[in-house]
Specification:
Blueprint (H helix, E strand, L loop, with lengths): L5 H14 L2 E2 L2 E2 L9 H30 L4 H11 L7 H10 L22 H11 L5 H13 L2 H10 L11 H34 L5 H7 L10 H11 L10 H24 L4 H13 L6 H12 L21
Antiparallel strand pairs: 1-2
């Protein structure tokens, strides 16, 4: 994902493209844009990576705590997922992790401390999204999930004093697993859509003229988030270069419609069982908010006008006109 000087790129392009991974006959390396465009795209790539890892971890948690499955029992599930729409590097290595044993033959994963580290690119993505007023809510929840995981001592205390459900799910395991796949897939679609919304906003502000179709194509091979459905994203943006939002592409609109029932059931089951699914829940909330023609923000704006005279716009007047009312006579 090189950026900066275009003339310098022309000099080094043969070297970079020669060593880059290849997908569908195309080298997964291309000049991104001037200035820091390449670094920015790499940063968002890493933020999306945080999200991809968390949505997989939540599926693992629901199967482990909710269904009581051990890692060896989950291995064939992840292997099967890796042959379909979830085919990706991270699902592939997750299946391998599930089958890895310690010296005594027990699952090695069960002995890994549950405190996830981070280097900062996820946080930077979230901060950048706030600067651009774009909702990368799934990445934000993935970052916060790592922060919560690091609170080991406090969680140990809380587990003894805070009450909640046992974590067990009594529904048919095959149905739960099928719904989990839907939740993972739908949440992943939302995460990428949010990431590309951030690209569009940053591109406008910085004058980078980012090509979203090219960016998606670069991630199809040779990187941690490489996956089958990046080819679908590439096709969506190449078919409609002016696409406002990835969720408006017919392929992804239909994919979300198909996955939606299982997605909702997964969130509901997890909440009822007391199993945290922050990325599934936040992505579903974004989806519901984004598809709402009217939101309760009118009340928030009325409150702002009431306590601080921040004014408001009216639905029966042209946009841009400001009004103030005496809400507390």
């Amino acid at each position: 994902m090189p950026g900066s000087n275009a003339s310098a790129w022309r000099e080094i392009a043969p070297i970079f493209t020669a060593i880059a991974a290849v997908a569908d006959g195309e080298a997964c390396c291309e000049w991104i844009g001037a200035g820091g465009a390449g670094h920015y795209v790499k940063m968002v790539h890493n933020g999306i990576e945080y999200g991809d890892m968390q949505v997989i971890a939540e599926a693992y948690d629901v199967m482990r705590r909710g269904l009581g499955l051990a890692p060896p029992q989950m291995q064939p599930i992840f292997e099967r997922w890796n042959t379909g729409r979830l085919d990706s590097f991270l699902i592939e290595i997750t299946a391998q992790i599930m089958g890895t044993v310690d010296a005594d033959g027990s699952p090695l994963l069960d002995r890994v401390l549950d405190a996830a580290g981070q280097k900062g690119t996820g946080k930077w993505t979230v901060v950048a999204s706030m600067d651009q007023a774009m909702p990368t809510t799934l990445v934000a929840e993935a970052v916060y999930a790592r922060i919560v995981s690091a609170l080991l001592d406090e969680r140990a205390i809380a587990s003894g004093v805070l009450t909640g459900p046992t974590g067990m799910i009594d529904d048919d395991p095959d149905t739960v697993i099928a719904d989990l796949e839907d939740a993972l897939y739908a949440s992943k679609i939302v995460s990428y859509a949010q990431g590309f919304m951030l690209f569009e906003a940053a591109s406008r502000e910085c004058g980078w003229d980012l090509d979203t179709g090219t960016i998606a194509s670069l991630w199809r091979a040779g990187c941690i988030i490489r996956s089958r459905f990046l080819g679908d994203i590439t096709q969506a943006y190449r078919s409609a270069p002016g696409l406002t939002n990835l969720l408006f592409d017919p392929f992804f609109t239909e994919a979300l419609a198909d996955a939606e029932p299982g997605w909702r059931r997964t969130v509901a089951r997890a909440v009822a069982a007391g199993i945290p699914v922050p990325t599934y829940a936040s992505s579903l909330s974004f989806y519901d908010g984004y598809r709402s023609a009217r939101l309760p923000a009118n009340l928030i704006q009325a409150q702002r006008d009431s306590f601080g005279a921040h004014t408001y716009e009216r639905v029966d007047e042209p946009r841009g006109r400001s009004f103030h009312s005496n809400w507390r006579p």
